[in-house]
Amino acid sequence: MRLVIARCSVDYTGRLNAHLPLATRLLVHKNDGSLLVHSDGGSYKPLNWMSPPCSLTREDPDEVDLEDGVIERWRVTHAKTGDALLVRIHEIMHDTAHDLGVDPGLIKDGVEADLQRLLAEQVSVVGENLTLVRREYPTAIGPVDLLLRNDDGPGTVAIEVKRRGDIDGVEQLTRYLELLNRDPLLAPVTGVFAAQEIKPQARVLATDRGIRCLTLDYDEMKGVQSGAPRLF
Amino acid sequence: MRLVIARCSVDYTGRLNAHLPLATRLLVHKNDGSLLVHSDGGSYKPLNWMSPPCSLTREDPDEVDLEDGVIERWRVTHAKTGDALLVRIHEIMHDTAHDLGVDPGLIKDGVEADLQRLLAEQVSVVGENLTLVRREYPTAIGPVDLLLRNDDGPGTVAIEVKRRGDIDGVEQLTRYLELLNRDPLLAPVTGVFAAQEIKPQARVLATDRGIRCLTLDYDEMKGVQSGAPRLF
DNA sequence: GCGTAGATTTCGGAT
DNA sequence: ATCCGAAGTCTACGC
Lengths: 232, 232
Prior knowledge:
Two copies of one chain form a homodimer. The first copy, chain A, has 232 residues and is of the alpha+beta class. Chain A folds into two domains: 2-97, Protein Yojf, Chain: A; 112-225, Trna Endonuclease, Chain: A, domain 1, CATH 3.40.1350.10. Helix content of chain A is 20%, strand content 43%. The first copy, chain A, is built from five helices and 13 strands. Chain A has helices at 63-68, 112-121, 167-180, 200-208, 218-225; strands at residues 2-13, 17-29, 35-38, 48-50, 55-59, 72-77, 84-97, 107-109, 130-137, 144-150, 156-165, 189-198, 212-215. In chain A, the strands form two sheets. In chain A, strands 4-3-2-1-7-6-5 form a seven-stranded antiparallel β-sheet, with no helix packed on it. A five-stranded mixed β-sheet of chain A has the order 9-10-11-12-13, sandwiched between helices. In chain A, strand 2 (17-29) and strand 3 (35-38) form a beta hairpin. In chain A, helix 2 packs across helix 5 (218-225) and helix 3 runs parallel beside helix 4 (200-208). The longest helix of chain A is centred in the C-terminal third of the chain and has 14 residues, at 167-180. At the A-B interface, strand 2, strand 7 and strand 8 of A face strand 2, strand 7 and strand 8 of B. Chain A binds a DNA duplex (15 and 15 nucleotides) through strand 4 and strand 11.
């Protein structure tokens, strides 16, 4: 990894065109050839960048660049897509290289897959007298997150699990319900939209379509699952 | 901006929990308090991070940490959400600070707004004898990108413009069409799904619903708009 | 390898 | 301030 602090301007041509006027920025040139251009603010997203696989070539400035005070140009190109990033460097304040080695990577807990797993283990959260048929129940238009069977009679419950529930999730569940209700072995199929947080518009649309909304408490569900009841 | 290359482990607690085992990484501490943890690969997204507003506090390691070889801890917290990032530093290979100043920011060209503007100026691309009613035509469920009027008789055309057209865009347009067709002053309203690239599944769904798909060539439309015909 | 769904999405505009 | 949609989204997973 090479770290450069430089006064530079940047031009990107690819899926769109973008330009960064002359300013002092951090250039991170990673081992895989990728380049990040960061300012001293904003969030984790760089101002501009090139994703791997790509390659960086150092160029001499042309006459126009020389008049502008450019001392060096970096051209970073993605061979396949034709995307190109051109960095015109006017001054280098810092330039160091470091060997970082391979990273073991991130371990996550609490994403949608975890919510789905916990809810599958605790179907009583959805309602009484329900039994899990299966997770990721396959249909022609994609898998239904959870399918439950009514113990007391005919009928099935299809659940769409989201971390954040918005209108798209309701649309998705609606498509599943329409399809599943054509199956006489499953019908009548009712829908439950389960999420840690449900947007108002999504709630309105779901209710309008007879879909029940269920807000999930991940920490509580995780506590139950771990076998550590709150009484102790 | 402070740049640190360090052997460290990282734990994040917030919207989810995440852990990074001990390895050598780049730590970027920006002027706004935010912290990025980068490896020497991957893409522009850091392995872990904390977004502003947040603040970094240096802590002394506890006894367990000392046994593990931790020389220093950084705790980065987001006061409002309670998100917290804890970096356990075992060794610092590099540590420099730099004054970058404020960045003038990125100038973009070729995003959805540009497509929409160009199509509004070139409605003949959609079909003959059509006139623009307005861009961002307001409805109760959100604005329709473009609304056109049929010059030869009754009827309206509603257009959804996307850079990349996938199934969500078709759903969105379908909702608009359903609503607009209830208005006797507009009905019958037909739909056009216009995008630089239309995914096969989206095309199938649109066609099934009687929505016409239109692939847009941004460069060509830009050329026409600039008044520089290709003959010269 | 392609395509789709999720993301600690981030970012910008409009209400 | 909040909500909502776009993004050069990136990334993991299923086919």
